Amino acid sequence: MVVTAQRVEHNLQSTPVAVTAITSDFLDRFDLRNLTSLQNAAPNLVFNPGGGGSSSQVNAFIRGVGEFDFLLTTDPAVGLYMDGIYMARTFGATLELADVERVEVLRGPQGTLFGKNNIGGAISVTTRKPTGSGASRAQLSVGNYSSVSADLYTDQALSETLSLGASLLYRKSDGWQVRPGRDGGQENKLGGRATLAWKPSDAFDSTLSLEFISQDQTSNANVMIAFVPGADFFSPLFNGFVAQPNTCCTVNSLKHSAAEGPLNRDNLHGTAFTWTNSWQLTDAVQLKSITGLRQTHADFGRDGDNGAFNYNGDMHNEHHNQFSQEIQASGKTDRFNWVGGVYYFKERTRDQTQLVTASGLYDALNALGPTHPSGLWFARYALDFNLDFDNRQTTEDYAAYINGDLKFTDRLSLEAGVRYTKEKKAFSQYALRRESHSSLFLPTNPFTGLLDESTVTPPSDKCSDVYDQGTRYDCSASWSDVSPRLGLTYQWSDDVFGYVSASRGFRSGGFDGRPTQLSGVNDFKPEHLKSYEVGLKTLLADHRVRLNTAAFYNQYDDKQVLLIFGTTVVTQNAAKASVYGFETDLDAAVTEHFMLRGSLGYTHGKYNRWFDPNAVGGPADYSKRKLRNAPEWTANLAGVYDLPVRDGAVVRLLGNLSYVADMYLDSENSAVLHAGARTLVDAGIFYVGRDERFEVGVQAKNLTDAQELVGGVNLLSFFGYAEGYYNAPRRFFLTVKYHTR
Fold this sequence. Notes:
The structure is a single chain. It contains three helices and 43 strands. It has a single domain, classed as Maltoporin, Chain A (Beta Barrel), CATH 2.40.170.20. Helices cover about 5% and strands about 55% of the residues. By secondary structure, it is mainly beta. It is globular. The two termini are about 20 Å apart. The model has no long low-confidence stretch (mean pLDDT about 90). The longest helix is centred in the first third of the chain and has 8 residues, at about 235-240. The strands form nine sheets. The protein has a 22-stranded antiparallel β-barrel. A hairpin with a 5-residue loop joins strand 39 and strand 40.
């Protein structure tokens, strides 16, 4: 198998990186074209559902390293790449288009070679390059929950030197969580990609790709998994002054919900442009230009209390634009192979957020007047937590890199690489208490409504004083880093390859994007990760078995951790943490008709030192906490058995079992967000005609109907409830496929 884990094509079995490569055939057979379903095929990989109600985000965790927040002030710790283009915001990321050729899951820091530095790893998606073969494919599926999906792909020659590849997808489903309005988990999506490949000579080729995605559906199916009346002060006030004669809130059922209203939406429109040009300058030297442009508009929301009242939730309107340009050169000789380049990236993002908290409470308290015995009239401004935010950020990233391997002998090689990164961020925020039209950051006189402007300076020296009547501030900062990689490889035999490596990953700092008071206007530092890895890649049983294994040890410094303190969500540099473990990938052709693919991963992560002197309730030592979204064990096993029938046709039996151990879904290790272990079983049976041109069959996803927590947020301390997200229930599909060869 050929992969591009080192940015140039290379045999998987001699690539000194822990990588799981998944082909288009495997993705198609097991219906793993949703990006988050990759955790059913790769070790030590889990995904967290999108926050804010969006189902379109991709929040990956590899070896316990990842980031789950969609806010523009945070960067992914695991990079996602589409044809070499880094995606800063993962809204609309999809594998579902039928032109995906392969996916590579690279574990460990990949900053030496891939785009912006990726401290935890990278997921690299490579689409098909049209060749003018004349091949076409079509697939139609129908299933329970009134689901319909259609996929089309064609590869056609427009001339002797120009080819066109085009793909189209359509998804429609009623959803699986019953609601008074539109059901939760609904799907309504249309997308496509067109690719032109031009090869006028052996020395030059150019590939231009345009894609779009559009969806109009409900937000993630959510559940109020806990509610403690009186644990907060908002719900008693809301029930006493606004919600009468009914009251909020009630713990919901996984299958049924009372949620309705304008918060429940998950809409997305996006376009992307990719242009890659390659010049073969000599037999040994190649030059490549990779240009990318992406634009996304996401409009989504969540009803946090999952009820008919506007007690708590939020709405987001996000506009994202990014541009990247990479110039890459590579070369090879008998003893030395190398790749190097320069990289530029610019991102402009705007997020407009409306936070709903006990809507109507300010008007009710304002009507009491100053003589009311409760004295709540005097607190009406402070209790208005219906907030409007307008966040804007511009990020620029400059980098230069070089990576090479030098052969000392025919078997022993030295691999070394280094990347220099310079990143700048400029952030601005407008914030207002919506119902009272008062400042969020400065105290307000309860009698006159005038601001107390005696203190306007936030704690961060990267941010300005608040201005414009206490509603605005600006921040800017820059960081630079040198990320090296060093390794030794040894080809023990034609079928056995080993390596050891040490690398350093970097993720730039940033600014807290959700302050609810002046003291929350703060910044956080970059984080660094040192990774040590040893791997062995083997071909066994006359190349019928591929067994690849890696063991690793990671040491975090200044790890960025997202924490919730009451109404304040902050990113804190949590000192040191360590992660170690191993993973194994297996491919086996058991017989001519029976194929197995599996993986096993183990991760042990903990904080070595994390002391917070400013914790709520006094200084606290969090050193015993486990890393979030870091299950100790992950495993999967997939099998395909072709039973020959007649005239070259076969009956194809498919099975896929995946296991994820229990884990904590938040950095605080809340008991309410402790997810139990889950085992998912997928199965299918297909009739495959001669030459595999026609297929018809049925498939089941999550055959045992196992549903466990896969994400959530703990707001018990301030809003009195916790919210959770579950994986989808059992699904059945009848599928027809047609291929021309």
